[in-house]
Amino acid sequence: MQLEELYKLYTKNYLVTTDTRNIKKGAIFFALKGDHFNGNEYAIEALEKGASYAVIDEAKYHTKNTILVHEVLATLQALAKHHRKQLNIPIIGLTGSNGKTTTKELIHAVLSKKYKAAATHGNLNNHIGVPLTLLSFTKKTEIGIVEMGANHQKEIAFLSTICLPNFGYITNFGKAHLEGFGGYEGVIKGKSELYDFLTEQKGTVFINTADPLQVAKTNNTITIPFHDSLQFISAHPFVALSFKNIEIQSHLIGDYNYTNIAAAITIGNHFGVVAEAMVSAIENYVPTNNRSQLVKTDKNTLILDAYNANPSSMKAAILQFSKNTAPRKTVILGDMFELGTESEVEHQAIVDLVTKQQFLNVFYIGNHFYQTKTTDYKFKDFEDFKEYLQKKPLENQYILIKGSRGMKLERVQSLIR
User: Fold this and answer.
1) Residue 42 burial (10 A CB sphere; 0-12, 13-18, 19+)
2) Which residues, including other chains, have CB under 8 Å from residue 277's CB and lie 6 or more apart?
3) What's the confidence (pLDDT) of residue 181?
4) pTM (predicted TM-score)
């Protein structure tokens, strides 16, 4: 089947899926393969559950309403790129080492005050998630925000050729995925692939001019700096700022979230969203999914920042937490992953930074932190820490909880009263 024919089938419902657990009637099922699964085996199940067609790449599964292609993933990506070309709407490409998802949600909240805006769901930001995001946009969509993640070079460049952004924003360059990128310089080069694409296509980049790296990397690019009326006020405990002399009180913790808000307002202003509407969008946005959530239990207050971590975000969170005036501050930190040969140095650097602060208690969880030199509490795994807390519960403390996604430190919440 030709791409144009498949596209006509798709536009009947604008529904695609790769998971038989959430089939919507009329959706097209794409039978993707992974290291431990073969989507072709579920094609019949998808059809029985209401899928209109199933795209497969193994002939032995070919039957009524299956579409046999050379490679399912490549077909999904090609369909998404073709769809993006037909949309003819502004699409903002978004990447960076930290704060991508929060920034994406803020931009979406702001733009939705004026447009039928659509954005990446959750963190569907890789070579599968970006096509699925694009294919979730319909003919009613007026503007799109596409989050792009990467853990190696050339990935952002490839994703850009699929979503074809005409606007872009990079939150920052940090020490994330050092193993795949080949060090910090590799991170900068890899993330800057979005700038390279937009420069070549004469697109526009929103930049934080307070970040010299962003300025340096956009010398030959059309840029829009953060709005000159934006002013940081405070971050105790939530970020407060002003825009056009209107004070904004957010529900976001940490002064590092100021730039995320500033980006959303700058982008909204460019697209003509009125100031009052943007203020409302920011003030009504409440973070979820373990991203800097303030949680109050019967006996403690938690800053639950357990969605992910890397050396840059960990450092920022610790320094911000140290500024808090609470008298009894405790930190619970979990391992940072994908650091390659830099892992030992980076974990020790975090320990050394924490040692300089005056925290009541410090707990490290995970094998990487267990190998560091510290006089604070160390636990090889979560179960060891759980056993400790059951014997010595924490009370009347202000607690920061942060670690990489694989550590699943949100489990700590159920252990603290």
Assistant:
1) buried
2) 110, 113, 114, 268
3) 86
4) 0.91
CATH of 89-283, one of 3.40.50.300, 3.40.1190.10, 3.30.2010.10, 3.40.50.2300: 3.40.1190.10
**Homologous superfamily, domain 3-70:** MurE/MurF, N-terminal domain (3.40.1390.10)
Nearest-angstrom CA–CA distance, 75 and 60: 19
Residue 233, both tokens? 């006020």
CA 221 to CA 215: how far, in whole Å? 10
Using one digit for the tens of pLDDT, what is the confidence trace for 181-230?
888 899 899 999 999 999 999 999 999 999 999 999 999 999 999 999 99
What's residue 222's pLDDT?
A: 96
Query: DSSP for 161-179?
Result: HHH--SEEEE----S-SHH
Which pairing describes strands 53-56 and 167-170: parallel, antiparallel, or unpaired? unpaired
Residues whose CB falls within 8 Å of the CB of residue 399, separated by 6 or more in sequence, listed in order? 300, 301, 302, 303, 329, 330, 331, 332, 416
Question: Per DSSP, what are the bridge partners of residue 204?
Answer: 167, 222
The second-level CATH assignment, the architecture, of 293-415 is Alpha-Beta Complex (3.90)
State the Cα–Cα distance between residues 40 and 235, nearest whole angstrom: 51
Query: For residues 267-293, b (16+ Cβ closer than 10 Å) or e, as one string?
Result: bbbebebebeebbebbeebebeebbbb
Tokens of 104: 């994406």
| Omega before residue 131 within 30° of 0, cis | no
Task: Give the whole-angstrom CA distance, residue 249 versus residue 240.
Answer: 5
Residues 6 or more apart whose CB falls under 8 angstroms from that of 366 comprise: 334, 335, 379, 380, 381, 403, 407
Report residue 11 as tokens. 């536009």
- The phi-psi region of residue 253 (left if phi > 0; otherwise alpha if psi is between -120 and 50; otherwise beta) is beta
Q: Give phi and psi for 264, each to the nearest 5.
A: -60, -40
What is the pLDDT averaged over residues 276-294? 91
Distance from the first to the final alpha carbon of the chain = 59
Task: Please name the residue that has the structure tokens 């919507």.
Answer: 24
Burial class (CB in 10 A: 0-12, 13-18, 19+), 43: buried
CA-CA distance, 414 to 416, in Å (whole number)?
A: 6
